[in-house]
Design brief:
Layout lengths: L1 H26 L2 E2 L4 E3 L18 E3 L7 E2 L12 E3 L7 E2 L12 E3 L10 H4 L7 E3 L22 E5 L6 E2 L9 E8 L5 E2 L9 E8 L6 H8 L3 E7 L22 E5 L2 E2 L1 H13 L5 E5 L2 E2 L21 E5 L24 E5 L8 H6 L5 E3 L7 H7 L10 E3 L8 H7 L8 E3 L20 E3 L18 E3 L17 E3 L19 E3 L10 H5 L6 E3 L5 E2 L2 H9 L1 H6 L9 E3 L15 H4 L1 H7 L2 H17 L1 H15 L12 E6 L5 H13 L7 E2 L1 H4 L6 H10 L1 E8 L1 H5 L1 H15 L6 E5 L13 H9 L3 E2 L4 H16 L1
Parallel strand pairs: 2-3, 3-5, 4-6, 5-7, 7-8, 8-9, 9-11, 10-12, 11-13, 13-14, 14-15, 15-17, 16-18, 17-19, 19-20, 20-21, 21-22, 22-23, 23-24, 24-25, 25-26, 26-27, 27-28, 29-30, 31-32, 31-33, 33-34, 34-35
Antiparallel strand pairs: 1-2
Helix pairs in contact: 14-19, 17-19
């Protein structure tokens, strides 16, 4: 009896556990209102129950699902995409997908399917994408799997270890594929015409370790394939035989070798194949290894004038283990005569031999990005009669250091119109340079230059000098149509009179604070302007101009999202298009004119009296004195929140925020500074903000300049600090003279401030970098004292 009770209890526990598990699995599936459901990486052991017709996309990848039953997806009649990749699926019942007639995307890759059934795919008449990679099957089944998939465009099959054979019936019924990927790494048997049934394939990616069956596959694909990509193949043993190829006119236009290992001998065999068949116009090598010395034995190479009409050659990240012993490759020079475009990237190229350059008689485009080219070796490469038709030369991210030498070296290239020498370390630019006379496009971005000079050729139509350290641009370029000068330190737009033909200008991410109507209208031919991500001072004039000029909006790129106010504080962060300032700031003249003549006269009289007698100043000081009387004479140490409050003009904000703040707040230990733009409390009266900030700071730093003494808000800060800091004999003021100013510019009523400047030492900002470290040391010492 006890055993029966024990059994009943166990069964009950299992039943309860299964009931609790289902809601947990369902709850781990998140769906948005459009029917896109995400259940990735949730440790699900089965497809969640309760799926309805509302589900349009279902991603259950990276789980522990082991099987799919006939009822799991029965309700998903509107499902468009189903991703079951990287699970543990071993079985799929025959009618599991019977209701998925709208399914277009199905991914069953990297599961444990050892057998494939055509019953799964028969209902999937709308399927366009099918991925079966990485399972355990040895073949694609006994009957054609894809004969009903008339809309299929992308198909991926095979696996790295178990897939060993391709049969003639495997792709029956398929007439057109945009992309076919076959992982045949361990292919041992290829039945003739297995791939010939597909009448049109845009791109085939074929992964196979050994090239034993490569020619047989090539024969079947020659009349139907446009782009053949060979992956992860060891071509060491590849041998070409003319007898195996009966058709020399092929549809294949492009060959790609990806992660392929080649020897001197097998490279010669590839050249023979490419020369024997016609039609191939582009060859690409990516992440390949040439395990040889360049000793290419190509019989009859003197008769081969070009490799099967190849016009485009691309080499990326080529690895040559024995490059230090490499031959001069003169045996293949004659094969390059017809090549028009060559790209050799990230392959440690430091020299193109002059003799090879002279043989490239048809070359129009050469890209040598991310290599080791120096001016000395470039001179040998661009020798006399080298690259006679070259129009575009890309030397991005090499080891070039001298603009003058670079220009002189390329004078032999009479037809060069486009030159990209970006991401080199030029730093400086000489006053004069020589360039090819037809040069129209020059890219000098990311070269660390600090200024531009007449070294830049005046014949340019497109100039890119973005992401450098430029403070100004004042070159006369009468033919320039496009200027890219983003990510520099410009404060204003270039002078339009220097660029009369300019159509496109990208000047975003500088420190431009405003755009004036007069300045923009001076660019008569401007069609597109990108000035986004700058720090705009949203004054009334600026907002009125940008919001009312419809013609301006039509030429601004990324308007309005990338155009935001940086100041004043009340509209900081808002889009320029949406920013609004109070009427009192933008229409003061109208408000004043509406007042009566008597009141105006009274105000003028009062203003004159107050100005001469400093009445306003005394009233403000009286108010500050009354407010300060309610507070402790000296703030307790625990109430001090900042090391220093910084008083500065908005026009000096760049030096304060990008120089002083960076130096002090990133020092170890860091100083905590109080800046009005960053630390004032929004909505609080500005005078209260000033008082509270000064009282909660150990020191007060005044950044004195001509702009400071003209600033109204700086006067308020100086007024209160004059009372608080000097009248109480408090030695908490630190004066920094940012630029020489006359003492008469300081108001006469601040006699104690003038006296202190005459009797005490103040810190003067040095223009020479060698003296700046001492300045910072003295400033930190003063703050700590």
């Amino acid at each position: 009896m006890s055993r029966v009770l024990w059994t009943v209890w166990v069964l009950g526990a299992v039943t309860n556990l299964s009931k609790e598990e289902a809601p947990d699995q369902a709850s781990s599936l998140s769906c948005d209102p459009t029917g896109i459901c995400d259940g990735r990486s949730k440790s699900l052991s089965s497809i969640p129950a309760g799926l309805t017709a509302a589900v349009r996309s279902l991603d259950l990848s990276n789980n522990k699902i082991a099987s799919i039953s006939d009822t799991d997806l029965r309700g998903c009649v509107n499902l468009k995409a189903l991703n079951l990749a990287s699970n543990r699926i071993t079985t799929i019942e025959e009618e599991s997908f019977v209701s998925l007639q709208s399914l277009e995307h199905l991914d069953l890759s990297y599961n444990l399917l050892s057998n494939l059934s055509s019953f799964w795919f028969r209902p999937l008449s709308s399927l366009k994408f099918l991925n079966l990679l990485g399972n355990l099957y040895k073949s694609l089944g006994e009957t054609p799997l894809f004969s009903q998939l008339t809309n299929l465009r992308i198909l991926k099959v095979g696996n790295i270890y178990h897939f060993t054979e391709l049969q003639e019936k495997d792709f029956a019924g398929l007439t057109f594929l945009e992309e076919l990927e076959i992982d045949a790494s361990n292919l041992q048997r290829y039945e003739p015409k297995s791939l010939k049934s597909i009448q049109n394939i845009s791109h085939l990616a074929l992964r196979m370790k050994q090239p034993v069956l490569l020619l047989e596959i090539f024969v079947d694909l020659s009349s139907s394939l446009k782009h053949l990509e060979l992956r992860d193949t060891h071509l060491n043993t590849f041998r070409f035989s003319e007898a195996s190829i009966s058709e020399t006119n092929t549809l294949i236009k492009k060959w790609t070798f990806r992660n392929v290992k080649v020897t001197d001998g097998s490279f010669s065999e590839i050249v023979k194949l490419l020369n024997y068949v016609s039609g191939v116009s582009e060859v690409e090598f990516e992440d390949c290894t040439l395990d040889g010395l360049g000793d290419f034995d190509i019989p009859g190479s003197d008769k081969i004038k070009s490799i099967g009409g190849i016009e485009i050659l691309t080499v990326r990240r080529l690895y040559i283990p024995y490059f230090y012993s490499f031959y001069d490759m003169s045996s293949i020079y004659s094969l390059t005569v017809e090549v028009k475009r060559i790209t050799v990237e990230s392959s440690k190229v430091f020299l193109v031999p002059c003799s090879l350059s002279q043989h490239l008689k048809s070359l129009e485009y050469l890209d040598l990005s991310d290599n080791l080219m120096l001016e000395e070796y470039l001179r040998n490469s661009a020798c006399e009669h080298a690259w006679p038709l070259l129009q575009t030369l890309i030397l991005r991210q090499n080891r070039l250091k001298s603009l003058e030498k670079t220009g002189e070296t390329l004078l032999t290239l009479k037809n060069l119109t486009n030159l990209d020498i970006s991401k080199n370390n030029y730093v400086s630019m000489p006053e004069t340079c020589q360039w090819p006379e037809k040069l129209k496009y020059l890219n000098l971005s990311n070269t660390r230059i600090h200024s531009v000079t007449p070294c830049i050729p005046w014949t340019l139509e497109i100039l890119d000098i973005s992401n450098n350290n430029l403070n100004s641009f004042s070159l006369i370029l009468p033919q320039l149509k496009e200027l890219y000068i983003s990510e520099n330190k410009l404060k204003t737009l270039p002078d339009a009179s220097f660029l009369p033909m300019l159509r496109v200008m990208r000047i975003s991410r500088n420190i431009i604070s405003t755009l004036s109507k007069e300045h923009l209208e001076s660019f008569h031919t401007l069609e597109a302007l990108d000035a986004g991500s700058d720090h705009f001072l949203c004054s009334c004039e600026f907002l009125s101009f940008t919001q009312e000029q419809r013609a301006l909006v039509q030429i601004l790129i990324d308007w309005p999202e990338n155009y935001r106010c940086d100041s004043p504080f009340s509209v900081r962060g808002r889009r320029v298009r949406d920013a609004r300032l109070p009427a009192s700031e933008c229409h003061r003249a109208a408000l004043v004119s509406a007042m009566g003549s008597v009141l105006l006269l009274l105000l003028l009289l009062t203003g004159v009296l107050c100005h001469r007698g400093h009445g306003l100043w005394y009233l403000k000081m009286m108010w500050a004195w009354l407010q300060a009387k309610r507070k402790p004479r000296k703030a307790p140490p625990g109430d001090l929140c900042y090391d220093a409050f910084v008083s500065y003009s908005e026009r000096d904000a760049y030096w304060v925020e990008n120089v002083m703040v960076q130096e002090l707040e990133h020092f170890d230990p860091p100083f905590r500074l109080c800046l009005h733009k960053r630390d004032f409390i929004p909505g609080k009266w500005i005078i209260d903000n000033i008082i509270d900030s000064i009282e909660k700071s150990h020191k007060t730093i005044f950044v004195l300049s001509e702009n400071f003494v003209k600033s109204e808000w700086c006067k308020y800060e100086l007024d209160f600090s004059h009372f608080r800091l000097f009248d109480e004999n408090n030695d908490a003021a630190i004066l920094i003279l940012l630029e020489p100013i006359e003492k008469k510019a300081i108001p006469q009523r601040f006699c104690k401030l003038r006296k202190i400047m005459n009797t005490k030492t103040y810190l003067e900002w040095p223009t020479e970098e060698t003296q700046q470290e001492g300045f910072w040391l003295n400033l930190r010492t003063a703050i700590k004292s």
